[in-house]
Design brief:
Blueprint (H helix, E strand, L loop, with lengths): L1 H31 L22 E2 L10 E3 L20 E3 L5 H14 L4 H4 L3 H29 L1
Antiparallel strand pairs: 1-2, 2-3
Helix pairs in contact: 2-4
Amino acid sequence: MLRDQASGNHVRLFHRLQNIDRTMGPLLAPLARAFKGHVIEDEKHSTHKGTPGSRIIDFRVSKDPLGSCAGKGSNCAFNKPVACYACFRFEPWLDAPHEKVLVRLESERENWSTDDRMAAVNDEPIRAVKEVIALCAQVWQQRAQQEAEAAS
C-alpha cells in the first residue's frame, strides 16, 4: 500500500513540475541565452556608426570587424572580442566572420583539454558565438524565403 501511495505522490510531483516548467520556461529563456545583444546589418545600422572604439575586430581571425559596441568600447576592461559576444552592448554584424571566431575559441578550448577548469573559461562565449551564428543564419534564411516568394 505504501509503495502505491509513494508512486502516486511522485506522479503528482512530476505533473506539478511540468506545469512549473511550462509556465516559467518562457520567462526564464532570456536568462539562459548567452548572447545578450542584437544582430545588426552592418556599421551603418550600429548605435554609434563609426565612432572611434566602437568597432570590434579580432585580428587573429580576420581584419574585418565582427560588430560594433553600443558602449563605444570605452571604459571596457573585458577581453575583446571574446567577452563581447556575451555582452548586452555587442552589436554583431550580419556578414561578419563569426564562424572564424568560433573555430578559434573551440581550438583554444581543445588546447586546454587536460585542464577542465581552463577549458571551460570560454564556454559561455562559445555558446554566445553559436547563438549569433544561428541568428545570422535565420536572418539569411528569412531573406531567401522572402525573395523566393517575391519572385513567384
